[in-house]
Amino acid sequence: MSARISIKGLSKVYASGLTALDNVDLEIEPGEILSLLGPNGAGKTTLISIICGIANPTSGTVEVGGYDTIRDFRNARKLIGLVPQEVSLEPFETVINTVSFSRGLFGLPRNPAHIEKILRQLSLWDKRDSKIMELSGGMKRRVLIAKALSHEPQVLFLDEPSAGVDVELRKDMWETVRALQEAGTTIILTTHYIEEAEAMADRIGVIRKGQILLVEETAALMQRLGRKQLEIELQAPLDAIPGSLSGYDLERKDERTLVYAYDTQSERTGITRLLNDVQAAGLQLRDVQTRQSSLEDIFVDLVKEDAA
């Protein structure tokens, strides 16, 4: 199966000399959800803008559905739906007209049944005759999604779609995303809710300083870079870790808590021996609990700047 989006050697250097993207290679498959994570200024918006034809690259190529985004812009752009982070809608227009008009911009004939289906999926049908100015922030964001889906795109970009959306609306939104994925739509997600990326994405891409650090299946990434920690809470405060425990590379979370990181894939975790040595050092235990690292922990470690 050929990639839905194929990016090769993509670079973007602005006139100021700023390198926003540096030789990016990336392939995104039909029907997958890819979450693109990176700190502010990492190049996420520039990458999305170039794929969508909003900006031109300095070098490299992008193909969407086999169409080059420069040589065959119109055909490539027809395949893409974009939900921007900023809410920019005509306040005095109705919901249904706003969404229907977006379909017409792509030269597609009227399809009231499709527009109704989208509005119902996004719980907007009852608001179809309401003016945009009368909607809540969360409802306006749903209208943005409906606009992006009006022309039946094969690729959907969601740039911070959960910003300003309450829990109930967020749940409905992700149900819609899952349904789109099942129908074969490729979805690229950027989000600051990293737990959503962990739950929704098939693959995680991490970008920093215009370079792709990794692209990996979510489960494999969690297994490869994730870690477990044992937190040992003591009865009494501890000024320093006893020398007899120096071989365990313990950290002090606070004056009463020691943290021990271990590999769950190893045959021996060392936990039993550690707990015996803690007691042998005269330390009395109050509580012991484990914690699995999250995608957020992994992300922070990956994009952390060198101390220098």
Task: Tag the structure with descriptive keywords.
308 residues, elongated, Alpha-Beta Plaits, 6-stranded mixed β-sheet, alpha/beta, 4-stranded antiparallel β-sheet
Protein model, in words:
- This protein is α/β, with parallel strands linked by helices and 308 residues long.
- The protein is 32% helix and 27% strand.
- The strands form 3 sheets. It has a 6-stranded mixed beta sheet with strand order 6-7-8-3-9-10, sandwiched between helices. Strands 2-1-4-5 form a 4-stranded antiparallel beta sheet.
- It is elongated.
- It starts with a strand and ends in a 5-residue tail after the last helix.
- The mean pLDDT is 87.
Instruction: Return the string of H and E elements.
Output: EEEHEEHEHHHEHEHEEHEEEHEH
Roughly what fraction of the amino acids lie in strands? 25-35%
Number of strands: 14
Low-confidence regions: none
Mind telling me the CATH superfamily name of the largest domain?
Answer: P-loop containing nucleotide triphosphate hydrolases
Largest sheet: 6 strands, mixed
Biggest sheet: strand arrangement: 6-7-8-3-9-10
What would you call the structural class?
Answer: alpha/beta
Helical coverage, percent range: 25-40%
Spatial gap, N to C terminus? 44 Å
